[in-house]
Amino acid sequence: MTKARRLHQIFAKDGKSLTLALDGYYFSTNTNGIDTVIKQMPQLIENGLDAALVTYGLAKRYSEWFHDVGLVVRADISTSVYDSSVPNTASLLTVEDALRLGADGIIAMTFPGAHNEADTHQAAWALAKDADQWNLPFICESLPNGYAVTDKNSNDPYVIASAARIAVELGADIVKTRYSGGVDDWVIAEQAQVPVLALGGPKTKDVKAYLSFVKHCMDNGAKGVAVGRNIIQSENPAGLVAALNCLIHEDGEIDYAYQLYRNH
What is the separation of C-alpha 108 from the centre of its chain, rounded to a whole number of angstroms? Predict the structure, then answer.
């Protein structure tokens, strides 16, 4: 299978993607809702979900729920799962492992500017090289100064943009990174020059404000979002997917998207 064909499993025909991040078990103990929302996959797909980001264990255990959605497998894991800052990561899966699971893509993190910058760059490059040999799209989640936002610099659009470009130079076909919410976020996608998936951001109960943030990401060049807890721990996961689909694939307005959320 060609890489272009696999990319079409992650992105819709318009080149955009609404991706559900289900890989929380590799990085946190805040995993409430993951197993429940997986069993709602038919409704989520019907409402516009394009792809799911999973761990090796989820891909094996819940394989029947991922037949009709693009599948991206996480290749790295936190080395300290009880530390929510993710101080370091370790490589786990190979490209061959991902292909045996039927994956359409593989993802790993890199941390420009962090103490483990060299190690994460090396791991990302090795994965990109192997992915190219098998025509498997590689998503590099490039986060400046580490996983957590620790200071103003790590949430600066120009710093994020440079991290995004580093991911591309390491071989990424897609970049996953944070958006600051600021007026200069346009520079992130411009610098990357490959599709950028914006991180879904911290969990919030303010649905309308969250939709505004996603609209901001799309207006500033993102080709979609990878959302975890804001869908998984939502009171209405299917409704939120419908609302996000409106913003991402239909270029809809926030008020209308919010009504879709309330009416589903």
Answer: 10
Predicted TM-score of the model (pTM): 0.96
The DSSP 8-state label assigned to residue 66 in this structure reads: G
Residue at 133: amino acid letter: Q
Please name every residue paired with 21 in a beta bridge, in sequence order, or none if there are none.
53
- For residue 97, the enclosing domain spans 3-263
| Strand-pair category, 76-78 with 89-91 | antiparallel
pLDDT score of 201 more than 90:
no
Q: Are 50 and 246 in contact (CB under 8 A)?
A: no
Looking at this protein, which amino acid is placed at residue 72? Answer: V
- CATH number at 90 reads 3.20.20.70
| Distance from C-alpha of 155 to C-alpha of 191, rounded to nearest angstrom | 16
- Indicate the helix (H) or strand (E) that contains 90: strand 89-91
* pLDDT, tens only, 45-100: 999 999 999 999 999 999 999 999 999 999 999 999 999 899 999 999 999 999 99
Query: How many helices (H) and strands (E) are present in the chain, helices listed first?
Result: 12, 10
Cα separations in angstroms, 197 against 17, 32, 59, 181, 255: 8, 23, 21, 14, 23
Q: Which residue has the tokens 């946190």?
A: 28
Report the domain count for the chain.
1
- Cβ neighbors of 243 (< 8 A, separation 6 or more) are 207, 211, 257, 258, 260, 261
Longest dimension (CA), the chain: 48
